[in-house]
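Table S2 (continued). Query chain:
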Amino acid sequence: MRNNDMERGTHMIRKSTIIVAAVAVMVLAFAASAYAIGPVYITWNAGGNNSGTGGPHQNYQLTTEKCAVCHSVHAAAPSNAAAGQFGPDSTGAAETQLLLRSSVADACTYCHITSNVAGLQIYNAVASNYQTDDQYGHNGSTSAECADCHAVHGADTFKGYIAGKILKANSNLVSNVSGGVQTEAAATLNTLVSTGTVFTAPAAADGDLQVTAFCTRCHKTFSDASETTITASGYFSNWNGTTTFGARDYKNHPLKAAEATFAASGANYTGRVAWADAQTCRSCHAAGDTRVSTSYGGSGGVVAWSFPHWTNGNASFLVSGWGVNDANIGILDDHQASTGKPAGSHSVADGAEDGVCLRCHTNGSTGAPNDATAGVNVTF
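Corresponding output:
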């Protein structure tokens, strides 16, 4: 009897153990399914639910899948996490307050620099070109960060042709402003747009006019005539290379169409002095092809010449040339037009180089120094 009782007891213990183990497995399975990490970050895809809604930064709808490109409720890397523990961040210790796939400082680099998720890699696909300030670009260390110029969620931006660039239309960075753009710039540029205003200019030909209006948020030296006195408060570059902050009265090179007859107080010459229009910032600061994005009909890929982000070798994005043909490279004709640097060696390492002026102030056509029949050193 005792042996039978012992066997019966052992059998019951084994059966209980099996039941407990089975229950534990079921509980763990339920917990794993109930608390599984997801949804995770997704790779941007312009098709499917996102078809016809533009880029991932705007036009959010109930059925689109744009938020998870940058944010993930459960897969954001926790602070001090081991490298690669959650999400694609290889460094770990990413900030989590915004549930980003990387740190706030590097939030834009994943799609726009270190990978081709966006179809276009600026800063020559080298993150340090953005992180280290230099004379060839708007870099994130001391001069300008992505969010200083771009509205990440596409709110309050310039509309029309450059809407996809999500450039902020409103800002408090200038003192005399109209909708966030320097008053003098807005008034002058509004006379040049095809319809509407620089904030909503719909035509491709107005793209550089909108960019010029945007640039005046920080760069205040804009006028429609060199005789016009402008007063503004902000940062100014002085003749000796130093930078000062405060209110300034200034006169500068006008942004205007080339005139057949030059006239200026005190001048003893009344002939033609310019053969190309200078109506936008990119009339002179033309280095960097802004039309390579696949969204604008370009080829995409890695971009070393990416005005105004980083354009290696061209100080202040300036381009030099020998005449009007070189100058016209910086002027738009349609949305496919290239506004990159002219063919040949036209890098500008020093903004004071003569070639910047010769692009407009000679009428040369072949690019040779002796091709000009009029202009500086020929007729005046």
